[in-house]
Amino acid sequence: MTTRTSGIKRLLGVQLLAAFAQASGAAQLGALLLVVGQNRSTDAYVTLFTASQLAGSIIITGTLQPLALSNPEFSGWRRWAAIGVGVNVLAVAVTTGLLLVLDYRPSVVFPIAALIAISGTLAVIAGSLAVERAVIGAPGLLAGLTIAPNLLATALLVAASSGQLTWMCTGLLAGNILIAGWSLLRRPDRDRSTPSGGAEIRASQHRRLDSWGLVGSSAIGATGPFGLQAATASFPEGQATLLAVFSRIGAGLIGVGVTAYTYAVTDWRRRDEAPLRVVSFSAVMAQFAAVAAIGLLLFLHVDVDWITGLLATIWILSAASQATAARALQLVGRYEPFRQMALPSLVFYPAAAWMLIAVSQTATAYFIALAVIAAFANTFFLHSLGWKREVSWAAASVALSGVCVAWSVLV
């Protein structure tokens, strides 16, 4: 009973931290819009900040975490943290050049880029240390990693009478200095070195091959959605911002409701897939219900706004189940599905971005693209795991979606 109570408290604590992290990020975004508004300077900040986050998505959570999770003897923390730092600096440098080509003022871009690059470097270091704690059963630091930077950035932004963007970036930097220092102090003190020997060397070589496959698939997985969001810049004025807010809300729901939960109930010592299957099954069942609701609305010729809302819901549910399935694959060290999914993504994301720019500049088209890609990836990952019940419901949702599309075209 004591162990069960402790587990429940631990789970709630992690999800509360994740919720607070998402809320602090939303507060920072809201304060930025209220204090500074929307202009070229805020566009530069958002673009550079998003570019800096790619390093964490590709290297830390996309590569380092699954490698460490699948191998209790993993020892490449410093190497992958250094690679993450390099990716961060490169991403910010390339984005800075792009902004200059697009006639953004150097006096605006360079100070923001410098602060973001340094802050992002510290965030990558803190992220690698947080993952090191998460894979041994202490995910709290990873769940609340962005709280201090977000709160300090918001406080300095609101308090500043001039140069608000610079002060906000300074707050991010100060927060990441604090969290990186705290992460170093709380680093797990245990030996995770890889033993010597022929079998271990061969396993290490296999993991290196897998790791670069993960880097490639993670890069596509991180930059693809960003490309879709960037395509909404061609939409009518104001829609891109609105869709970005909705996307942030959806990602927050997944982060709090699913990702934090999977981190809390699994680590390299606890590999039971049962709690993960509960999440996936619930998500695909709800997804089928949402698709059926769309079919009913199409039959009744209801306003398209309701359909758009349901499409956004389907995207969130598909992405939630996909994230859970990805966690299960990481637990068993299955990297092949991630690499195999990369090739279709190279086709889907550019095609969807072209559709949004050249064919249909609407919120409905945007969420259709997100929902279709997430549903495909989710079904593929579930099939790779051999979760037949979940695959059946996911496939039924896809089939019913095809019926809905046919109905909307023919009627």
What does this structure look like?
- Helices cover 84% and strands 0% of the residues.
- By secondary structure, it is mainly α.
- The longest helix is centred in the N-terminal third of the chain and has 34 residues, at 2-35.
- The protein is globular.
- The relative contact order is 0.10.
- Residues 191-209 have low confidence and may be disordered.
Draw up the topology in text.
Layout: H1 2-35, H2 40-70, H3 77-101, H4 106-134, H5 140-143, H6 147-159, H7 164-185, H8 198-231, H9 239-265, H10 274-300, H11 304-331, H12 336-359, H13 363-385, H14 388-410
Helix pairs in contact: 1-6, 1-9, 2-3, 2-4, 2-8, 3-4, 4-7, 6-7, 8-12, 9-11, 10-11, 10-14, 11-13, 12-13, 13-14
Key terms:
single chain; 411 residues; 84% helix; mainly alpha; globular; 14 helices
Number of helices: 14
Helix coverage percent: over 70%
As a whole number of angstroms, the C-alpha radius of gyration is 22 Å
Q: Structural class of the helices, strands and pairings? A: mainly alpha
Biggest beta-sheet profile: none
Strands, total number? 0
Shape: globular
End-to-end distance, in Å?
58 Å
Low-confidence stretches: 191-209
The mean pLDDT is: 79
Oligomer: single chain
Write the H/E string, N to C.
Answer: HHHHHHHHHHHHHH
Strand content: under 5%
